[in-house]
Amino acid sequence: MRRRIFTRRSLFLLAGLAMSSAALAPARAEVTLTPADKGWVGRIQETLNQITTLRARFEQIAPDGQRTTGVVWLSRPGRMRFAYDKPSPLLLVANDGKVVFRDEQLDQTTEIPIDRTPLGLLLGAHIVLSGDVTVTGFSHENGLLRLSVVRTATPGEGTLIMFFDEKPLALRSWIVVDAQGRQTQVSLSQIVPGVATPDALFALPHAE
After folding, report:
1. Distance separating alpha carbons of residues 7 and 45, to the nearest angstrom
2. Measuring CA to CA, which of 40, 41, 43, 61 is 20 to 30 A from 138?
3. Cβ(1)–Cβ(110) below 8 Å
4. Is 141 helix (H, G, I), strand (E, B) or coil?
5. Could you tell me where the DSSP H helices lie in 35-109?
6. Count of alpha carbons within 13 angstroms of residue 46, beta-carbon side
7. pTM across the whole model
8. CB-based burial of residue 167 (10 Å sphere; 0-12 exposed, 13-18 middle, 19+ buried)?
9. In which element (H, E) is residue 123 found?
């Protein structure tokens, strides 16, 4: 098995799995929230914790502008699978405390600890948007909410920017900004919550 850490393509995908624009990069410092903002952050936290499993179609825009599509499954805590549509040779699975990226075309398998990617903030057993997580940005306009967060202890490792529809309150997309400022966007559609998620979906990929 050929195993490399942080190939160019795996860096893009392990970053997060939503637009290549430096203007989207949030500040690292904690923001001051109004009472109304805090109310919305509390509702977002509650909404995220209500997600136990889901299946959805996704469109991903990598930092180089490449667009890919596929199906994503999520099963909290700790498990996610991105199955890319053919002819893409890519598969990304989060499980067992790590994120594993498989590129069949290059015969490469890459893995990093899940707590080193902002993606892991979506997969916790209980999501708390304070304490170990710092809110670095929040906006609410035209029926869309935008929330930026980092890990409090390691903010330089990346930022997760989540976008929510207001009515009903629902996660629709996210951007992951990695430590180098590269941004990967994932937009969801055809979202089906509460689906069955067999363990086999989250078997970690490996070389044949």
Report:
1. 34
2. 61
3. no
4. strand
5. 35-50
6. 7
7. 0.83
8. exposed
9. none
Q: Which tokens sit at 88?
A: 């893409």
CA 68-71-73 angle, to 5 degrees, is: 135
At 11-51, the pLDDT tens digits run 444 444 422 333 344 445 778 999 999 999 999 999 999 99
Alpha-carbon distance of 155 to 135, in angstroms, equals: 11
Token pair of 205 as six digits? 């990929």
CA angle 169, 174, 182 (to 5 degrees): 160
Interacting residues of 208 by C-beta distance below 8 A, sequence separation 6+: none
Mean pLDDT split into 10-residue runs, the chain, 208 residues: 41 39 48 94 96 96 93 96 94 94 92 84 91 94 95 87 95 90 94 95 81
